[in-house]
């Protein structure tokens, strides 16, 4: 311990002087001079420091019993001021009746909860239907290839249920690509539904249902039918168009279900004027158009809208990938794409040829091999000369004419000419 004291030698003394701890400042053992004790200077007053003085504690509130009892509700909701809270809590320690009332109010507040959104969960309909089907299977089930159309028309109908009368006349645009350039036409929300009603009529006619355009024999294409509907209407479409579209969509799902149960749904085809699609692909095409145009409507009325379920989105992407070789061949005939590197006789039907590997990421993703030189050829990984990576929703918007080929590709590798031709062919799938 003595060694420890020696380390602080000179503390409280003048240099070179010694002093005992209890000598009262007198000389040391050797009779040295008297050393005055070191006294610390006085502290600076807070008034002289320039700092703000502390606020005095507020005087407690003195309130009558009736006032304190009236404050119990606000106290239970934590809405009292600090002084009111202190006064109420002090009172509760001395008043049994108010303490019991405060306990009941606090329990009641515990039952309250934050206000929930009134918007229905988009997946609610699917969960309810699935629960019903698990308990009792339908006698005539909706076929898998018609389920995307059933789901997308139901989602769009829910959106239309939420919008007001004025929003049916909100401006909207029908957009697509034509001759490698974007094209659009101005319309309204009601006009978009009229367009869906007109083109869905092509499937209705193929199924033997009534055509929503009775005098549309000279309008076999989607564009012609949309124009025919517009010319036949004395007034611009309004909210009233929802009823016929809704009834037709229900009839299409019911009839497609019975047709699937019957003898040959695979034999039915739907004519689009300049091409045909099997019924199952036509229903998938109409589901795709319903989703894309629902997004147009949602954008027009500032309504949140989600992509389709992944399993439905995958089917839509698969349809687009399957028709890409035919679209690419049509562009070559029109002089809009580079000629094939291999002639037809070098690539027999069913034989592998040059291919592009289309990788779709995210929702509904997968991988497709697109034959480049002939629609009759088979895509082959061994003959892949290019690779394109795209997000699933972005690829669908490319096929719908909502984004350009230059904007769509997230990753590209290989033959640049083949990549450009396939992306432009995807954009050419879009139509009014």
What features would you describe in this structure?
- It is a single chain.
- This protein folds into three domains: 65-109, no CATH class; 141-301, dinb family like domain (Four Helix Bundle (Hemerythrin (Met), subunit A), Up-down Bundle), CATH 1.20.120; 310-428, Nonspecific Lipid-transfer Protein, Chain A, CATH 3.30.1050.
- The protein starts with a helix and ends with a helix.
- Residues 1-31 have low confidence and may be disordered.
- 45% of the residues lie in helices and 13% in strands.
- With 432 residues, the chain is α+β, with helices and mostly antiparallel strands.
- It has helices at residues 2-7, 65-70, 72-76, 82-92, 96-111, 124-135, 147-162, 189-206, 222-232, 242-261, 279-301, 310-333, 392-399, 405-408, 416-428; strands at residues 171-178, 181-188, 269-271, 276-278, 352-361, 366-371, 378-391, 411-414.
- The chain has 15 helices and eight strands.
- Helix 8 packs across helix 9 (222-232) and helix 8 (189-206) packs antiparallel against helix 11 (279-301).
- The strands form three sheets. Strands 6-5-7-8 form a four-stranded mixed sheet.
């Amino acid at each position: 311990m003595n060694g420890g004291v020696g380390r602080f030698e000179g503390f409280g003394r003048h240099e070179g002087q010694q002093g005992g701890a209890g000598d009262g400042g007198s000389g040391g053992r050797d009779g040295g001079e008297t050393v005055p004790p070191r006294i610390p200077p006085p502290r600076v007053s807070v008034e002289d420091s320039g700092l703000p003085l502390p606020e005095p504690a507020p005087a407690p509130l003195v309130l009558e019993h009736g006032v304190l009892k009236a404050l119990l509700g606000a106290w239970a909701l934590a809405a009292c001021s600090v002084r009111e809270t202190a006064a109420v809590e002090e009172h509760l320690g001395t008043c049994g009746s108010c303490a019991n009332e405060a306990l009941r109010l606090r329990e009641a507040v515990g039952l309250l909860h934050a206000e929930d959104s009134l918007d229905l969960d988009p997946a609610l309909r699917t969960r309810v239907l699935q629960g019903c089907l698990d308990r009792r299977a339908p006698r005539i089930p909706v076929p898998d290839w018609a389920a995307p159309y059933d789901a997308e028309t139901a989602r769009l109908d829910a959106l239309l249920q939420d919008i007001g009368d004025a929003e049916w006349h909100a401006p909207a645009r029908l957009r697509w690509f034509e001759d490698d350039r974007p094209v659009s036409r101005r319309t309204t929300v009601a006009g978009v539904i009229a367009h869906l009603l007109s083109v869905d009529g092509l499937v209705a006619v193929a199924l033997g249902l009534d055509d929503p355009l009775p005098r549309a024999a000279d309008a076999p294409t989607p564009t012609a039918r949309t124009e025919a509907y517009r010319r036949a209407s004395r007034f611009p479409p309004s909210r009233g168009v929802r009823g016929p579209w809704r009834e037709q969509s229900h009839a299409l799902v019911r009839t497609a279900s019975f047709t699937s149960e019957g003898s040959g749904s695979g034999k039915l085809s739907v004519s689009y004027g300049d091409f045909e699609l099997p019924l199952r692909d036509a229903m998938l095409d109409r589901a795709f158009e319903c989703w894309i145009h629902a997004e147009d409507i949602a954008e027009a009325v500032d309504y949140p809208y989600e992509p389709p379920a992944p399993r439905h989105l995958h089917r839509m992407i698969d349809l687009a990938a399957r028709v890409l070789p035919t679209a690419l061949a049509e562009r070559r005939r029109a002089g809009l794409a580079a000629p094939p590197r291999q002639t037809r006789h070098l690539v027999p039907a069913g034989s592998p040829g040059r291919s592009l590997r289309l990788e779709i990421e995210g929702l509904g993703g997968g991988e497709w091999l697109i034959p480049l030189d002939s629609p009759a050829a088979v895509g082959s990984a061994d003959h892949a000369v290019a690779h394109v990576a795209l997000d699933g929703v972005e690829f669908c918007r490319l096929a719908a004419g909502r984004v350009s080929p230059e904007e769509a590709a997230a990753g590209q590798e290989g033959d640049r000419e083949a990549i450009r031709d396939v992306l432009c062919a995807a954009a050419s799938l879009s139509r009014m």
